[in-house]
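Q: I have 424 residues here and want to know how they pack in 3D. Can you give me a structure?
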Amino acid sequence: MSENVMSTKAEIKETPSIINSSKKAILALQHLIAMFGATVLVPILTGFDPSIALLAAGLGTLIFHLTTKGKVPVFLGSSFAFIPVILTVKNMYHGDLSYVQGGIIVAGLIYVIASLLIKKIGVQRIEKYLPAQVVGPMIIVIGLNLIPTAYGMASNNLLVAAITLGVALFINFGCKGFIKQLGILIAVTIGYVVALSMGLVDTNIIMNAKIVSLPNFSLPKFSVPAVATIAPVVLAVFMEHIGDITTNGQVVGKNFIEDPGLNRTLLGDGLATICSAFIGGPANTTYGENTGVLAITKNYDPAILRLTAVFAIMLGFVSKIGAVLKSIPVPVMGGISLMLFSMIALIGVKTIKNNNVEFNVKNTIVMLTILILGFGSGLIEKHLGITIGIPITATVKITGLSFAAIVGVILNAVLTLLDRNTVK
């Protein structure tokens, strides 16, 4: 009798644990879906092995979490910022991507060196140049720059995209509890079923995929021209990193620039990129898609992102599951991405509002400058062919968000100094 009672108590204790683990697995699956498309698109465009990219993204995320004491709920995936220089070096060496790997490793080392310098200088000295009137518009620009990409995906079939987006919005605003946290997964599933009924899903990808396969690992090679072409990209993505980490912190309600510190987040990003390039993958970076998932689900547990990383590593070897994710139609991902990226832009607006930023002349000039340069310069380049930015090399320029952020930080510092001198 007593044994039965003890057994029942043990079962009661285990059940909540099992349920909790199942919830984490499902939430991790949502993050996996959010990051999958962009992570495999970079290797598809550049020639890297998508399986290696998934494996590297998972390993890189775990390295980042280890470096940042497991405090920052981010996922690291393939970086789009490196695509132009990857293609340039690839052409220089007749398709040999091993020299690209060498250049990316050096770029990762620059991140590591920068993290050590920031640790010595002190995060506080850097943080004072990032007030809400600078950070808020930076976050808005990140979201606004991603929305056209999402719309381009959605425009492949606006009906499917609208159904996916509509379901996601209905669950987000009309449901509560765990159902609300599963909004992205449910919306993508319904969108997938609708697309399948319309004949928009390529099931051959799933049928032809092997159950298990070994990724194409490759070792790096180093050359001065390749390093000189790729390494300067770090200057362009440095401010992007700050923007992503700040955005993530604003969503969670914590200051990750201060704790665990910008030096640790940069170190994690750099080590993740080095690891990826060493096994044959592209550079890694923090993903806004997953920050959007955090904003929608309101579940900020970093352990869920680490579980997502484990799933990504498994996908690097289990081709059949990866094929299912690859078969998700573009308009379905476009519909859900419209919501994710809009949430990021909204976070920027909330940052300005919650920090009670005064709309005086100085702050208004700073915010408008960042918004115009960050978003408007992309439209000018697209429609007029004029690139607004800072040239670093013949193939690398600091443009878009990075350029807007640099100008915004400098402009705010100068106007603040002039304002203080005027008061005196």
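Q: Anything worth noting?
A: The first strand starts at residue 76 and ends at 78. Residues 25-423 form one domain.
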